[in-house]
């Protein structure tokens, strides 16, 4: 666990990113086409993403009072609360992907997500960076024929934009880390 915490601390330093360049039309198509295949299995993929997040970065569970004490992976996979949150994550990504040509809609969604996680849930923004890496890893593992290096690069750019935008919302609302002993 100490190793994972060092990884989290290291990632925090990387949150001061430059604004990523916008997706090109070609990258937008690559993301949307690959997502169409992923979203067909959205519940299973969402659960896989969250399980991998919690197994590899157990400190992420601290923000989920409904299942933060569940250690058994099978029990966690069956948790209705985890499945519900996985569905929300996948639906939010779906909304972003469907609206990649509508920058106002994308900004609106990211602002809602950022404000909720900063103000209501007090989630350290480093977890968006961590989650982005987990999403890329799961997409590559679960869809190796779909997520080619070119597709992976487009997703990396999209997720960097997500992290940058959410971090900007955190800065805008004046988020400061609080005690991790919530819930």
From TrEMBL:
InterPro entries, per database record: Globin, Globin-like_sf, Globin/Proto, Globin_lamprey/hagfish
Keyword field contains Heme: yes
Ranges where the Globin domain occurs: 22-171
The protein's Enzyme Commission number: 1.15.1.1
Reactions that this protein is recorded to catalyse: Fe(II)-heme b-[protein] + nitric oxide + O2 = Fe(III)-heme b-[protein] + nitrate; 2 superoxide + 2 H(+) = H2O2 + O2; Fe(III)-heme b-[protein] + nitric oxide + H2O = Fe(II)-heme b-[protein] + nitrite + 2 H(+); H2O2 + AH2 = A + 2 H2O
Membrane-spanning intervals of the chain: none
SUPFAM superfamilies, sorted: Globin-like
GO molecular function: heme binding; iron ion binding; oxygen binding; oxygen carrier activity; superoxide dismutase activity
Keywords, in A-Z order: Heme, Iron, Metal-binding, Oxygen transport, Transport
Signal sequence interval, chain numbering: none
Source species, domain of life: Eukaryota
Matching PANTHER family: CYTOGLOBIN (PTHR46783), CYTOGLOBIN-1-RELATED (PTHR46783:SF1)
Family affiliation: Belongs to the globin family.
Protein name according to UniProt: superoxide dismutase
């Amino acid at each position: 666990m100490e190793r994972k915490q060092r990884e989290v601390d290291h990632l925090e330093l990387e949150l001061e990113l430059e604004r990523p360049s916008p997706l090109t039309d070609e990258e937008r198509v690559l993301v949307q086409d690959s997502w169409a295949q992923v979203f067909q299995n959205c519940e299973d993929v969402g659960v896989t993403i969250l399980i991998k997040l919690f197994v590899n970065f157990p400190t992420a569970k601290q923000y989920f009072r409904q299942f933060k004490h569940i250690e058994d992976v099978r029990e966690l996979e069956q948790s209705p609360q985890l499945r519900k949150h996985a569905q929300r994550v996948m639906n939010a990504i779906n909304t972003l992907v469907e609206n990649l040509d509508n920058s106002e809609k994308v900004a609106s969604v990211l602002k809602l997500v950022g404000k909720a996680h900063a103000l209501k849930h007090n989630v350290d923004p480093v977890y968006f960076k961590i989650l982005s890496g987990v999403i890329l890893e799961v997409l590559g593992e679960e869809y190796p024929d779909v997520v080619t290096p070119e597709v992976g690069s487009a997703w990396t750019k999209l997720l960097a934009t997500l992290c940058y935008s959410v971090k900007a919302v955190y800065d805008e609302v004046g988020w400061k880390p609080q005690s991790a002993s919530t819930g």
